């Protein structure tokens, strides 16, 4: 006789796995992309670096010094350090299980609504993970070394001392002098470029800016109108809900609000894939036995900064 199908030593057949190779990338004019660009300053302003694999190195020049050379004297040789920074692609995503009956009966375009909701959360999550997260990079709960973490950490490779470009407001909140000094830390660096430096801040700083005037009684914050950007000391200001501190990456950070002044070209955003989505119908695959469709959305990004000296941070510690 043939062997029983219920033989105790016989292994159960492996469950077939649905393949997700055919991801659908978002078009540049899609609602998802537009929403992300509106909500994420990093996606919108950072220098985009294409990634063909999960890691990519970016050469970093240490510059070249100059000195006087007398007639007939030997030229001194430059010893500036040239190294590289590393981008590692990390995946951010979510899956949503939707009953086929809801897809068929709902007057709401469920898929489009959920894609847009995900885009909003992704934008804030990405900004928090790249700008405000205080934790050490581990690739899971802390995807990247954020600007905040870099500014508050020693970097002996480039001679940066922790907190050199960091200021805290204290109980009094932001003052004119403190804001001016924070901007000055970047103005007097080798990374100042009039057309590239901007301010990234949490929206709670709007109120702080509106109440501060210079010695002549003029407001230092100019509110944008007719599509022009808000400005602080003539620098464009971009607002981000992710610009708050948090111990791990989150789309809802609840820590201290941050203001970051920096050269946007020193924000290196690795573009590995996405945002992209895939819908698996309840008529096949993993939802076949329950009549449930699965919507998956993801994006793979890398992030690093070119040099901590290109940024300065004010943390509202009230």
How would you portray this structure in words?
There is one protein chain. This protein is α+β, with helices and mostly antiparallel strands and 318 residues long. The protein has one domain (24-48, 82-305). The chain has seven helices and 14 strands. It has helices spanning 31-39, 41-45, 100-105, 110-132, 147-151, 176-187, 205-210, and strands at 24-25, 47-50, 55-60, 83-88, 90-99, 166-168, 197-201, 221-222, 230-232, 235-239, 258-263, 267-280, 292-305, 311-315. It has a seven-stranded mixed sheet with strand order 6-14-11-7-10-9-8. Strands 1, 2, 5, 12 and 13 form a five-stranded mixed sheet that branches. Strands 3-4 form a two-stranded antiparallel ribbon. Strand 9 (230-232) and strand 10 form a beta hairpin. Helix 1 (31-39) packs parallel to helix 4. The protein is globular and about 85 Å long. The termini are far apart. Mean pLDDT is 84; it is low at 1-8 and 15-22.
């Amino acid at each position: 006789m043939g062997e029983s199908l219920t033989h105790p030593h016989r292994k159960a057949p492996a469950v077939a796995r649905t393949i997700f190779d055919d991801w659908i990338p978002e078009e540049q004019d899609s609602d998802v992309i537009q929403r992300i660009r509106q909500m994420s300053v990093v996606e919108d302003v950072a220098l985009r670096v294409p990634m063909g694999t999960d890691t990519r190195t970016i050469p970093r020049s240490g510059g070249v010094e100059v000195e006087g050379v007398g007639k007939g004297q030997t030229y001194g040789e430059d010893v500036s350090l040239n190294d590289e920074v590393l981008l590692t692609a990390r995946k951010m995503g979510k899956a949503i299980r939707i009953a086929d009956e809801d897809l068929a009966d709902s007057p709401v375009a469920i898929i489009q609504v959920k894609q847009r909701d995900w885009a909003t959360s992704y934008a804030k999550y990405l900004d928090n993970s790249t700008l405000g997260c205080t934790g050490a990079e581990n690739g899971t709960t802390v995807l990247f070394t954020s600007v905040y973490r870099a500014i508050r950490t020693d970097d002996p490779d480039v001679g940066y001392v922790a907190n050199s470009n960091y200021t805290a407001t204290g109980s009094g909140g932001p003052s004119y002098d403190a804001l001016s000094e924070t901007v000055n830390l970047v103005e007097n660096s080798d990374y100042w470029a009039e057309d590239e430096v901007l301010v990234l801040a949490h929206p709670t700083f709007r109120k702080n800016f509106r109440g501060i005037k210079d010695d002549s009684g003029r407001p230092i914050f100019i509110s944008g109108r007719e599509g022009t950007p808000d400005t602080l000391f003539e620098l464009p200001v971009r607002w981000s809900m992710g610009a708050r501190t948090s111990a791990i990456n989150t789309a809802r950070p609840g820590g201290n609000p941050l203001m970051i002044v920096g050269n946007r070209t020193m924000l290196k955003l690795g573009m590995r894939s996405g945002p992209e989505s895939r819908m698996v119908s309840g008529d096949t695959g993993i939802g076949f036995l329950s009549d449930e469709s699965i919507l998956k959305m993801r994006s793979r990004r890398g992030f690093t900064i070119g040099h901590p000296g290109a940024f300065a941070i004010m943390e509202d510690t009230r």
